[in-house]
Amino acid sequence: MEEGNLSYPNGRYIVDFEPGEDRRSFVLMHQVEGAPLINRLIEDQHASYVCVVSSPVSGYRETHIAGQSQQEVQWELDDLGEPPLFTPMIVCTRTCQLTLECERDGIHKIWDDLVVDFKAGSRLAVANVIQLRSSILQMLSMRKRDDLKEGTFFVDFETEPFLFVVNLSSGLHKFLRFAREERSRPHIMIHIVSACLALLQREFPSAEGEEGWKNDRSLNGLHNELNYHGIPGWGEDGFSPERAATILYPHKVPVDDQIENHG
Questions:
Q1: Is the peptide bond before 161 cis (omega within 30 degrees of 0)?
Q2: pLDDT tens across 84-117, in order?
Q3: CA distances to 25, 65, 84, 128, 197 from 52, in Å
Q4: Residue 153: which residues within 8 A CB-CB, separation 6 or more?
Q5: What is the DSSP annotation of 33-93?
Q6: Which SS3 state, helix, strand or coil, does residue 118 take?
Q7: Do 52 and 89 form a contact (C-beta atoms < 8 A)?
Q8: CA separation for the pair 130, 15 (Å, rounded)
Q9: What is the pLDDT of residue 167?
Q10: Lower CB count within 10 Å: N or C terminus of the chain?
């Protein structure tokens, strides 16, 4: 089951994913709908959830296997030469032979009553490849600092690989980690992004030389991301950290009848 394949007329393979806070992990949530055959193979332990992590530039490729639909995938940044590619799939793990039934298995009628050999390693469902972009949010390392006054933060950085180190008061750190649905969280994150971009403007204005940002693959990717959105680089004339941050992540103003009436 994959995009363009009609073997499961009502089948859907849905993959949701959430990046980890350490830029070295991902949580994937696999879900199969309208394909009872695949679900049955998983329940009978004849199939497993799989995610292939790869980096064409470095030749890195690793296959992660899980028995549960929620799968955590980890990798080593030092092994990769670029943001990795993720290919989620469901793979047959045991060889078996089945007689297919259209109504029971959710398959197309052309497969009805056929005897099919499922070989170990056969791909039963394949999702679209997920490609991480060099988003600034992927470059953040959130760290709790008990010595900071409540409600405050400051941004520093580490190299090899490059990371923005966001030092947060304990309460602010807890809020950003757990209160994901609160309205104020996105506004705080935009403030943090603005501070990170201001740091680049201050500490890494030049692209060339030993200390130039072109020596770091993540900063190169971030610079390309800014250009994609029509934003000048942090070492160029006209760069504004707060404007760049709000172009990348615009503030969402809630609709309010009283505000509209004053318009």
A1: yes
A2: 788 899 999 999 999 999 999 999 999 999 999 9
A3: 13, 9, 10, 12, 32
A4: 166, 167, 168, 169, 172, 192, 195
A5: ES-HHHHHHHHTTSEEEEEEEEETTTTEEEEEEESSSEEEEE--GGG-SSSPEEEEEEEE-
A6: strand
A7: yes
A8: 10
A9: 96
A10: C
Rounded Cα distance between 258 and 263, Å, is 9
Torsion of CA 151, 156, 162, 163, to 10 degrees: -10
Q: Model confidence over 18-51: pLDDT tens digits?
A: 766 566 778 888 999 999 999 999 999 999 999 9
Average pLDDT in the 175-180 region?
Answer: 71
Q: Of 163, 164, 30, whose CA–CA distance to 86 is shortest? A: 30
Pairing between β-strand 163-168 and β-strand 140-144 as defined by DSSP bridges: parallel
Tokens 């073997």, residue? 7
